[in-house]
């Protein structure tokens, strides 16, 4: 090659370059370092135990719920009224945690919605978790926005159908013979004008008692009759101008919708938007309020009062409420009017026993794990542990899933009893860690005082000893010192949480006192407390422990 020709660019200079960045590992900083150490290769080398881990999570709704057939059938017999266009009775569902309340209600709701589509009966179910959405404003705003979204989707579908009908009209006009004016009517529709057939019940007047948006499934009424010569036959429209006017009306409705912000509006305005959004379309609405007692506890019964009284004002739609609660007595705090209208039907979910839990775990494990991944004693042991804690199926599923994860991490081929016992300890410790981590600072100081006393060999600790150490800790971090009576209350709260064990004992003529002991692992609990930035500098304190005579 002569020197006159420029040297072609080196391919390794430009290969893999995109907008100035190298896309090849060899030319990046990572490529200059040592090769991969195989950190994840080793973890991936073992055979996976799980086939579908999500089946063991609380959020999963199974296709079959063992030992809840009676409760599911009772819900179905109440809600079937929605498929007849009637208002179902309100339902209150009670039961302890992990007894299948939410899973059963979601299962029935899914069946209700699918059946409503099958029979072209408009029915919507909305689920609200009141532990998260716990104020009247948030509940109404979330519901309003969901129904606005549904209304917009239905309007879009309806507009598409009407525009297709206009296209059919254009095609029909083009198919006519223009040489014979006698064949073309004066109204310009291009064929024999249909009568104004409104027998389908989908009127065009938005103020009429029928729905402004044709109900779900009414699109069949717009399909041209196979024997009809005109696309508008058997529709409520007599000419294309009425179709265009209806499209304009629907699009104006869609533009008028305004999403509710999660804060900032007066509550009565939010309720008004929610009411209009629900009543825009003809349908039966089922509102499922999970952890309904949390909503009542946080914001009173105003929300339930408004929702339970809506039907007397609604014109197009009807509303039914399903309340789900762990508290059997929460209705005692409701206004009598709310209680009478809300608790029309009550369904109680009893705890599972060990045999029922075993059936549930077996049913889920068939889908969750690969074949022969479980030893024979795993499911009975998980069921036995969960049955000890009020028959909590959620706890049993967590235990089985955690045991599988521990077995997988150790690259074991089979889950055995050892993994279940390790999972039990891990779940218990995780619960303690979460509870201690979220305690208020004053409760953490009281708990830290108890830990320091136990570490210094004090047994059967009394309230006075805890209070003395507590005051010292408050001085160290410059915190307010509560009264001894208030510290006693905090000890009682720790006892209720299962973190300490406080027993009132009589000292004869010296009165009564609380003897306190720790109920959780001392080292792990102390580590959680020291992870708090305010308490992290007081771990070196050696409290003065007063000598005392033991009986």
UniProtKB/TrEMBL annotation:
Organism: Natronococcus jeotgali DSM 18795
Keywords: ATP-binding, Cell cycle, Cell division, DNA replication, Nucleotide-binding
Keyword Secreted: no
Keyword Cell division set for record: yes
Compositional bias per record (Acidic residues), positions renumbered to this chain: 170-180, 217-226
SMART domains in alphabetical order: AAA, Cdc6_C
Region (Disordered): 1-38, 170-242
Annotated ranges, domain Cdc6 C-terminal: 447-529
Official protein name in the record: ORC1-type DNA replication protein
Biological role stated in the UniProt entry: Involved in regulation of DNA replication.
Comp. bias intervals (Polar residues): 197-207
Domain AAA+ ATPase: 87-353
Pfam families (UniProt xref): Cdc6_lid (PF22703), WHD_Cdc6 (PF09079)
């Amino acid at each position: 090659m002569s020197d006159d020709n420029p040297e072609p660019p080196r391919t390794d200079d430009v290969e893999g370059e995109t907008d100035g960045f190298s896309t090849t590992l060899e030319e990046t900083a990572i490529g200059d370092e040592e090769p991969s150490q195989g950190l994840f290769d080793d973890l991936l080398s073992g055979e996976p135990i799980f086939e579908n881990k999500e089946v063991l999570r609380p959020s999963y709704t199974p296709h079959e719920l063992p030992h809840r057939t009676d409760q599911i059938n009772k819900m179905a017999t109440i809600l079937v009224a929605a498929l007849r266009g009637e208002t179902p009775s309100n339902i209150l569902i009670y039961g302890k945690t992990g007894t299948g309340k939410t899973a059963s209600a979601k299962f029935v709701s899914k069946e209700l919605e699918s059946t409503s589509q099958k029979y072209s009966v408009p029915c919507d179910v909305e689920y609200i978790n009141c532990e998260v959405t716990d104020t009247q404003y948030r509940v109404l705003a979330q519901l309003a926005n969901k129904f606005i979204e549904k209304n917009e989707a239905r309007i879009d579908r309806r507009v598409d159908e009407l525009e297709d009908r206009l296209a059919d009209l254009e095609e029909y006009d083009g198919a006519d013979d223009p040489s014979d004016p006698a064949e073309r009517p004066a109204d310009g529709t291009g064929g024999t004008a249909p009568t104004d057939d409104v027998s389908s019940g989908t009127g065009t007047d938005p103020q009429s008692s029928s729905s402004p948006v044709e109900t779900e499934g009414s699109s069949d009424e717009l399909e041209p009759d196979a024997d009809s010569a005109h696309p508008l036959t058997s529709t409520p429209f007599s000419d294309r101008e009425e179709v265009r006017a209806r499209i304009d009306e629907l699009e104006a409705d869609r533009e008028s919708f305004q999403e509710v912000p999660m804060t900032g509006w007066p509550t009565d305005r939010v309720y008004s938007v929610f009411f209009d959004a629900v009543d825009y379309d003809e349908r039966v609405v089922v509102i499922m309020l999970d952890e309904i007692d949390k909503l009542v506890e946080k914001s009173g019964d105003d929300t339930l009062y408004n929702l339970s009284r809506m039907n007397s004002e609604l014109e197009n739609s009807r509303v039914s409420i399903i309340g789900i609660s762990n508290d059997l007595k929460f209705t005692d705090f409701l206004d009598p009017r709310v209680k009478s209208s809300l608790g029309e039907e009550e369904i109680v979910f009893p705890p599972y026993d060990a045999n029922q839990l075993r059936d549930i775990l077996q049913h889920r494990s068939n889908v969750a794990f690969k074949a022969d991944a479980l030893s024979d004693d795993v499911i009975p042991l998980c069921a036995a542990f969960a049955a000890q804690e009020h028959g909590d199926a959620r706890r049993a599923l967590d235990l089985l899933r955690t045991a599988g994860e521990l077995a997988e991490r150790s690259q074991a081929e089979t889950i055995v009893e050892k993994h279940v016992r390790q999972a039990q300890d891990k779940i218990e410790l995780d619960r303690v860690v979460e509870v201690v981590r979220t305690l208020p600072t004053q409760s953490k100081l009281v708990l830290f005082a108890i830990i320091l006393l136990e570490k210094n060999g004090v047994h059967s600790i009394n309230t006075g000893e805890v209070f003395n150490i507590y005051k010292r800790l408050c001085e160290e971090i410059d915190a307010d010192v509560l009264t001894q009576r208030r510290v006693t209350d905090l000890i009682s709260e720790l006892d209720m949480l299962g973190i300490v064990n406080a027993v009132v004992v009589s000292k004869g003529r010296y009165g009564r006192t609380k003897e306190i002991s720790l109920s959780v692992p001392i080292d792990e609990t102390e580590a959680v407390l020291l992870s708090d930035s305010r308490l992290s500098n007081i771990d070196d304190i050696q409290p003065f422990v007063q000598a005392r005579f033991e009986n």
